[in-house]
UniProtKB/TrEMBL annotation:
This is DSBA-like thioredoxin domain-containing protein. CDD domains: DsbA_HCCA_Iso. GO terms for cellular component: mitochondrion; peroxisome. It comes from the Eukaryota. Residues 7-214, 259-323, 375-474 form the DSBA-like thioredoxin domain. InterPro entries: DSBA-like_thioredoxin_dom (IPR001853), GST_Kappa/NadH (IPR051924), NahD-like (IPR044087), Thioredoxin-like_sf (IPR036249). One of its GO terms (molecular function) is glutathione transferase activity. Pfam families: DSBA (PF01323). GO terms for biological process: glutathione metabolic process; naphthalene catabolic process.
Length: 507
């Protein structure tokens, strides 16, 4: 049996705003999971250099984003800061060199003192506007933090320098391409080929629920039940932080909230997001109307200057992680499904994901079929990402539709009608006009009074990994007016709303 106090190693660089966000949350996570938290800083620039990051060793990840992606991710960043009520005043010069700050941290052996100094350095960089590349400023911050015995010699300390280099090399070997990183040495990692290795790496402050589930699984005394330790973690879904403590929408004879789901069948991430729409519908009941919005992602990419295959434009390390991240999300939702018993109830069932042999998938005809008959959407997504069907071939597409009980030839013929082609072009143009940068993208619209127009709230939410943000927006969270609404783990208890018959897709 694993130790009752598993170890969590936190990799970070003071120069990363996402590592700063993680630093405000990781202590509470360690306390909830009874984990021993080890602060182990790394050199972000060296990681970028070693992994051939497109922005270069001295750049920021957003440097290579197109304007649409910059706008969407900037909005997401502001939402995140509001959700966790984090002070944020970035310096005009960014990134600043932090190598001496990180070496100084390795001169502080006591982990509690290192945590205190780490927090002070993050505040100095991201809130107070202090120049952490200045050695005198660094020593003053250490003094203010109550850390004694440091002087200018710490910046050239051979042991500290070596430890920083070793920590960075370890992170790279474990798969890091950025920060924050989380290493759980006691976790058992099972690769696709079935090989079992000790130690598991996670990346990103928005993947801390994976970290928490893994740590809780290690500490669990239960040996019965589901084989996946994540499925044995009580109330797994509630590990996604929420601002609003309820999922109850106002009672009404008609929907008071609309959720637009913008997608293309060509995206494995859109597929994953689509699999969760029935769960959202059950969670919020008839007060929520889900509206499917298919469009041509490749055309949008061309229009906004994005690569047609985004994974070819990132470092190999990030591309490898992206596939692993998708597997983690598939595992997560399957574990949630096991806990909620949906496969036994005949509602959802396990996601049986399979990477497409033919990629990218050409989807114009497939999308138009979905417009002609929205009820085929589930069948078409499954064909693309579970059954590995080459739906770009009309004969294969027809076979998929026929086997599902539709008249495939008729649907394809209707999908080629000029009006349907115009509809798809219009949806694609609308996606660009709204500012989409990828899929899936969610947009929540709310009706304040019966009979009034539905108004968008919270902006565009890009990525199925922000489904907890979508849930909060559905139930009334307003990012611009969120005083006192702190995103917290375990804030919501999830119960299906009775009387819901599933997703009613509308175009």
């Amino acid at each position: 049996m694993a130790s009752q106090s598993p170890t969590l190693i936190f990799n970070y660089d003071i120069s990363c705003p996402f590592a700063y966000i993680a630093s405000t949350r990781v202590q509470a996570l360690a306390q909830r999971t009874n984990a021993t938290l080890v602060y182990r800083p790394v050199l972000l620039g060296a990681i970028y250099r070693a992994t051939a990051a497109p922005q270069g060793a001295g750049g920021s990840a957003s440097d290579v984003f197109n304007s649409a992606k910059k706008a969407v991710t900037a909005k997401s960043m502001q939402r995140t800061l509001r959700r966790y009520q984090i002070a944020y005043n970035p310096p005009p010069q960014h990134p600043r060199k932090t190598v001496n700050a990180l070496r100084m941290l390795y001169c502080v052996a006591d982990q509690e003192k290192r945590r205190t100094l780490t927090d002070a350095l993050f505040r100095a960089y991201w809130v107070e506007g202090r120049d952490v590349s200045n050695d005198a400023v660094l020593l003053q911050i250490a003094k203010e933090s109550g850390v004694e015995g440091l002087d200018a010699s710490c910046f050239g300390n051979v042991e500290a320098r070596g430890e920083l280099e070793r920590a960075t090399a370890e992170a790279i070997e474990r798969g890091a391409f950025g920060v924050p990183g989380f290493w759980i040495p006691d976790a058992i990692d099972v690769e696709k080929d079935g090989k079992r290795e000790k130690g598991r790496f996670f990346w990103g402050q928005d993947r801390m629920h994976f970290v928490e589930a893994t740590l809780l699984g290690l500490s669990s005394k239960s040996t019965s039940g589901p084989s996946d330790p994540w499925a044995r973690v009580p109330n797994l879904r509630s590990l996604l932080p929420r601002c609003v403590h309820s999922n109850i929408l106002p009672s009404s004879n008609s929907p008071t909230v609309k959720l637009e789901f913008w997608f293309d069948f060509s995206s494995p991430w859109a597929f994953l997001g689509y699999t969760q729409l029935p769960r959202l519908q059950r969670t919020f009941g008839p007060g929520l109307e889900i509206v499917l919005k298919p469009f041509l992602l490749g055309i949008l990419f061309r229009e906004i200057g994005a690569p047609n295959m985004p994974m070819l434009a990132v470092s190999p390390a990030k591309a490898t992680w992206s596939r692993r991240d998708h597997a983690d999300w598939t595992r997560w939702w399957n574990a949630v499904d096991v806990q909620e018993g949906q496969s036994e109830k005949g509602k959802d069932g396990q996601i049986k994901f399979h990477w497409a042999d033919v990629f990218p998938i050409r989807t114009p005809t497939v999308l138009r079929v979905g417009i002609v008959e929205p009820a085929t959407t589930k069948v078409l997504f499954s064909a693309c990402w579970e059954q590995n069907k080459n739906v770009a071939d009309d004969s294969v597409l027809q076979s998929v539709l026929d086997e599902a009980g539709y008249d495939g030839a008729d649907l394809i013929a209707r999908a080629n009608a000029p009006a349907i082609k115009a509809k798809l072009r219009a949806l694609t143009a609308e996606a660009k006009e709204m500012g989409l940068c990828g899929v899936p993208t969610y947009r929540v619209l709310r009706q304040q009074q019966s009979g009034e127009e539905f108004e968008p709230v919270g902006g565009l939410v890009w990525g199925q990994d922000e489904i907890n943000v979508v849930e909060d927006l559905i139930v009334g969270w307003v990012p611009e007016n969120s005083d006192g609404q702190l995103a917290e783990v375990g804030k919501v208890k999830y119960d299906d709303v009775h009387g819901v018959k599933g997703v009613g897709p509308k175009l």
